[in-house]
Amino acid sequence: MKQALFPTPQDAEAAFYDALTKGDLDAMMAVWADDDDIYCVHPGGPRISGVAQVRESWRRILGGGQTLRFQLRGQQYLHSMMLSAHSIYEHISVAGETRTRNPVIATNIYLRTERGWRMVAHHASPAPVAVSEEPRRVTKTLH
Amino acid sequence: MKQALFPTPQDAEAAFYDALTKGDLDAMMAVWADDDDIYCVHPGGPRISGVAQVRESWRRILGGGQTLRFQLRGQQYLHSMMLSAHSIYEHISVAGETRTRNPVIATNIYLRTERGWRMVAHHASPAPVAVSEEPRRVTKTLH
Question: What is the pTM of this model?
Answer without folding.
Answer: 0.88
